[in-house]
Amino acid sequence: MPAELLKIHPQNPEGRKIARAVQILREGGIIVYPTDTIYGIGCDLTNRKAVERICKILDIKPQKLDLSFICNDLSHISEYVKNLETPTFKLLKKNLPGGFTFLLEASNKVPKILDVNKKTVGIRIPNHNIPRMIVAELGNPLITSSIKDDDLIKEYTTDPEEIYEDFKNVVDLVIDGGAGGNIPSTFVDLTQAEPYIIRQGLGELLR
């Protein structure tokens, strides 16, 4: 069966539609959803079979898993990272929610969930109501990757209907939250003594 296509209002997401997305995630489904940067593909972090499916879709070996977590707020982040000391916490508070992925040292909880010895983890809190409401209701982060296009000129697909055509046979739900962006998040390494920008994207880092 092809994936469900669900139109959700980006500013005021309808509760029953968010509940439908969460139901699919709890059943081990994979969803495509909008963020403040580009569309992402994700599943419930705690569902091992769903994580394995995402690895197959993206052609990644589970041992090489290098995906980000979508969290709802800073308290959510603290469960999955360690050394969230005052300077780091202040930096995160200044910049999140926003167009950033922060690389942090993974807590002991991460390898237990994923069965992969991950030392670091990328954390996102998008400035977008749809993914944050989904994660809040789900109660777990989404493990996620960006949707990339095979077209070398157009790196990121921005049209939800086009994304649906590309992914309808491999995922369970595509959320249409309007046109997506084509600039990825700014990727910042916080595992060193000073924040280091690995990739400049949408977010302008406030220090």
UniProtKB/TrEMBL annotation:
Molecular function terms from GO: double-stranded RNA binding
Xref: InterPro entries: DHBP_synth_RibB-like_a/b_dom, Sua5-like_dom, SUA5_domain
SUPFAM superfamilies per record: YrdC/RibB
Protein name: Threonylcarbamoyl-AMP synthase
Pfam family, one: Sua5_yciO_yrdC
NCBIfam families found in the cross-reference section: L-threonylcarbamoyladenylate synthase
Location of the YrdC-like domain: 15-203
PROSITE patterns found in the cross-reference section: YRDC
Highest taxon of source: Bacteria
